[in-house]
Amino acid sequence: MISLATLLLCFVLGIVLRSAKRFPPDAHKTLNAFIINIALPALILRHLHAMHFSTSLMLPASMPWIMFGCGVLFFLAISRVAGWSRQTTGGLILSGGLANTSFVGLPMIDAFYGPDFLGIGVLIDQLGSYMVLSTCGVIAATIFANAGRLTPTELVRKIAMFTPFQAMALAILLSPFAFPEIVTGVLDKVGGTLTPLALVSVGYQLRVSELGESWRELATGLGFKLVLGPAIMTLLLVFGLHEVGKVAQVTIFESAMGPMIGGAIVAMEHGLNARLVGLMVGIGIPLGLVTAVAWSYLLGAM
Prior knowledge:
Elements: H1 2-20, H2 27-50, H3 58-82, H4 86-96, H5 105-112, H6 118-146, H7 152-160, H8 163-173, H9 181-191, H10 194-205, H11 211-240, H12 246-255, H13 261-269, H14 274-300
């Protein structure tokens, strides 16, 4: 509950700070730059370095990759019919194709399935969500932000220079070596700033008054993130692979979380309809808490 309360408080603080004009109008750009280049890399380096790889981890870890791929296909198809701009399509792919498997997902797993299954959530988050964001996510953001003007070489360079990707590569390279306690402590403290700063940034950019202009795009994005995406994972795991144990349930439950904050920040940094992305996170996270409860009961009945 403390984690969820922190999410709500920081989100509201962002709205209040904007209304009170305590920050400069473009303060969110500085917050986002700190998140992408310092807080997120620290979090990835800290947790991914401690992960132990094995084939038994493939099923949960594959969920974010499948969800993101389905999201790309879904939003591209809808975009062609609806005539959305590249910025809107890219923003929905980044915010609707990635789930908040850490700051919301982990407390929800603890509440509904118990602490014994938190390891599954960490696995999904580190080998799935953050790896997808650092590779496929930045590719999608770059392509939609630059309208295909980048050459393959420039695109590869863009990925290689993406700080979270560098942190991911460094964490894997250093995995045979244990971090000193002081290093893990510092990474914990720096990485811990991601959640409050990201929610303040999202709240700062939220414009609820513009909901009427974007309700179709918002409904489509949240419809995929909270309903269609988890339904696809249920069909695949339960009816396709006949996985009915708790690991499969937790995996589907994590897929039903609201939009990933990190993905939203990357979308905003690339100019991918920041207002719509802000609405996706601002409305999607609290709404996702309600729909996730429904998914939990549904999965328990299977």
